[in-house]
């Protein structure tokens, strides 16, 4: 039962994809009212994450759920909500999160993980009860994780929603709902970068730039950015990078050797793989210091990886990360406060903007060398 004045099915526009590699089609869909623990959100902005692109463009998707409305970064306004929803009112600004934090389970009370056992990461593309609130011509539509932000409206369980301060610029709130926060969290929560340490970041997209900013704020003395796109150099410098290297410009050396050359031959304390490449994961491990180096894997899109054994045997650590290890109730508000206080400049990320109607242009824009993040104005 909805506590809101709005308890009707809403017909709205959304970007629907019918299969891997097929084009996005902006079509009319139906959004049902929220059930007891759910919130219906009128989306205002969304943004594009690499994971969305993988789901849309790559054949052999490990979770091929179609038809589907993609998008898991965004910001919107509460339109209606169920009678068991606490702490939210109509008109509140909220962002979706792929993870939840019940604050009571074994994982939530541990400092070692951000993966809640009570409200786990959703891979089914459905609500917690195994059904969908979205349909098109009577056919069920799947989510991207817990939500679908590439739509004028969406329904999400309130445990996967964060209320935000309305003074935060809405485009900034959108990118904090996943990409930049994932990178920042990886430096802060996963690696726990130490003052005066050395860091290498492989891939200077939104996630990699989040790592760079996090490492800077934590006091890293050397932050090496690695990207094949020279236009990312200025972006890296804006977020605290101290050194930049393009591996294509030094083809006679491996990336790990180039990083060691910049660190007196010993490698870095921490290396972050933000691309999703088997070869880069091994290079990242080898780029860290023997005995103590930490490699954090953030990039998606790999189904299996063959790891070189000896570098790990030499005392290095390899760790995977989702959402940068951030707990959505405990940690994400801290990033929001930093954003509100203008401690980092997220305008540097937002290089392109499209309307929902022109969302198919997004995939071409992402190929442009000056593109970091595409904002979708809903």
Automatic annotation (TrEMBL):
<dbReference type="InterPro" id="IPR013149">
    <property type="entry name" value="ADH-like_C"/>
</dbReference>
<dbReference type="GO" id="GO:0005829">
    <property type="term" value="C:cytosol"/>
</dbReference>
<feature type="domain" description="Enoyl reductase (ER)">
    <location>
        <begin position="19"/>
        <end position="376"/>
    </location>
</feature>
<keyword id="KW-0862">Zinc</keyword>
<comment type="subunit">
    <text>Homodimer.</text>
</comment>
<dbReference type="GO" id="GO:0046294">
    <property type="term" value="P:formaldehyde catabolic process"/>
</dbReference>
<dbReference type="InterPro" id="IPR011032">
    <property type="entry name" value="GroES-like_sf"/>
</dbReference>
<protein>
    <recommendedName>
        <fullName>alcohol dehydrogenase</fullName>
        <ecNumber>1.1.1.1</ecNumber>
    </recommendedName>
</protein>
<keyword id="KW-0560">Oxidoreductase</keyword>
<dbReference type="GO" id="GO:0008270">
    <property type="term" value="F:zinc ion binding"/>
</dbReference>
<keyword id="KW-0479">Metal-binding</keyword>
<dbReference type="InterPro" id="IPR013154">
    <property type="entry name" value="ADH-like_N"/>
</dbReference>
<dbReference type="GO" id="GO:0004022">
    <property type="term" value="F:alcohol dehydrogenase (NAD+) activity"/>
</dbReference>
<keyword id="KW-0520">NAD</keyword>
<dbReference type="Pfam" id="PF00107">
    <property type="entry name" value="ADH_zinc_N"/>
</dbReference>
<dbReference type="InterPro" id="IPR020843">
    <property type="entry name" value="ER"/>
</dbReference>
<dbReference type="GO" id="GO:0051903">
    <property type="term" value="F:S-(hydroxymethyl)glutathione dehydrogenase [NAD(P)+] activity"/>
</dbReference>
<dbReference type="Pfam" id="PF08240">
    <property type="entry name" value="ADH_N"/>
</dbReference>
<dbReference type="InterPro" id="IPR002328">
    <property type="entry name" value="ADH_Zn_CS"/>
</dbReference>
<dbReference type="InterPro" id="IPR036291">
    <property type="entry name" value="NAD(P)-bd_dom_sf"/>
</dbReference>
<comment type="similarity">
    <text>Belongs to the zinc-containing alcohol dehydrogenase family. Class-III subfamily.</text>
</comment>
């Amino acid at each position: 039962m909805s506590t809101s004045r709005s308890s009707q099915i809403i017909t709205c526009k959304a970007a629907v994809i019918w299969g891997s590699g097929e084009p996005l089609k902006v079509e009319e869909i139906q959004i049902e009212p929220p059930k007891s623990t759910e919130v219906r959100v009128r989306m205002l902005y969304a943004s594009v994450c690499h994971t969305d692109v993988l789901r849309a463009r790559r054949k052999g998707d490990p979770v091929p759920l179609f038809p589907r409305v993609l998008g898991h970064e965004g910001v919107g306004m509460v339109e209606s909500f169920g009678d068991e929803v606490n702490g939210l009112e109509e008109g509140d600004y909220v962002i979706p999160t792929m993870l939840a934090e019940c604050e009571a389970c074994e994982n939530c009370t541990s400092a070692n993980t951000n993966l809640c056992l009570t409200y786990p990461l959703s891979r089914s593309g459905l609500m917690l009860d195994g059904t969908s609130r979205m349909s098109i011509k009577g056919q069920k539509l799947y989510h991207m994780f817990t939500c679908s932000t590439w739509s004028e409206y969406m329904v999400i369980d309130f445990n996967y929603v964060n209320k935000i301060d309305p003074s935060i610029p809405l485009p900034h709130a959108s990118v904090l709902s996943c990409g930049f926060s994932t990178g920042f969290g990886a430096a802060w929560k996963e690696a726990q970068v130490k003052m005066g340490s050395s860091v290498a970041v492989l891939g200077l997209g939104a996630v990699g730039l989040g790592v760079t900013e996090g490492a800077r704020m934590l006091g890293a003395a050397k932050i090496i950015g690695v990207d094949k796109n020279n236009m990312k150099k200025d972006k890296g410098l804006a977020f605290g990078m101290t050194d930049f290297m393009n591996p294509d410009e030094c083809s006679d050396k491996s990336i790990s050797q180039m990083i060691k050359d910049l660190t007196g031959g010993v490698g870095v304390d921490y290396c972050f793989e933000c691309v999703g490449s088997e070869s880069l994961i091994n290079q990242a491990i080898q780029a860290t210091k023997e005995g103590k180096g930490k490699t954090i894997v953030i990039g998606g899109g790999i189904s299996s990886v063959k790891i070189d054994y000896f570098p790990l045997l030499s005392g290095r650590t390899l760790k995977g990360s989702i959402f940068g290890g951030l707990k959505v109730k405990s940690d994400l508000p801290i990033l929001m406060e930093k954003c509100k206080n203008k401690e980092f400049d997220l305008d540097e990320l937002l290089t392109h903007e499209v309307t929902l109607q022109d969302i198919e242009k997004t995939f071409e824009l992402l190929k442009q060398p000056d593109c970091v993040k595409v904002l979708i104005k809903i």
